[in-house]
Amino acid sequence: MSDIVVPGFKASELIAELNKAFEGFSDEERAKLIKQVNGVFQFVIKNKEGKSETFTVDVKKEGKVVRGKGATKADAILSIGDDDFVALAQGKLNGQKAYMSGKLKIKGQIMLAMKLDNVFKSVNPTAKL
Length: 129
What we know:
Distance between the termini: 28 Å
Mean pLDDT: 89
Order of helices and strands: HHEEEEHHEHH
Strand content: 15-25%
Strand order of the largest sheet: 3-2-1-4-5
Low-confidence stretches: none
Radius of gyration: 13 Å
Shape: globular
Structural class: alpha+beta
Largest sheet: 5 strands, mixed
Number of strands: 5
Helix content: 25-40%
Oligomer: single chain
């Protein structure tokens, strides 16, 4: 089991899937996604018990996912509830609506967060952000 999966956080399973997808990419696929997105995202996920976990998705230099803060400074920090993250990643929750309603908070480059749909689509082609 990946060290990314955290019991009590459904989002961590999706983030682990994202990592698996990144690891399965060829160098060309990884380079294409990095060129498209060019950003480091830090997700601060809060579960129902009020506990938080941080995950960093680097789509700027390495094309990888780590639990905790990554080695590269995040361009956008997104704070979201566990269930809302899952709905967002599965395309069941619209990112703009989540942001406008306060379910999703973004610090840093807000416009970069719009490119997250490219990242989620690399794992789940039906995702919409």
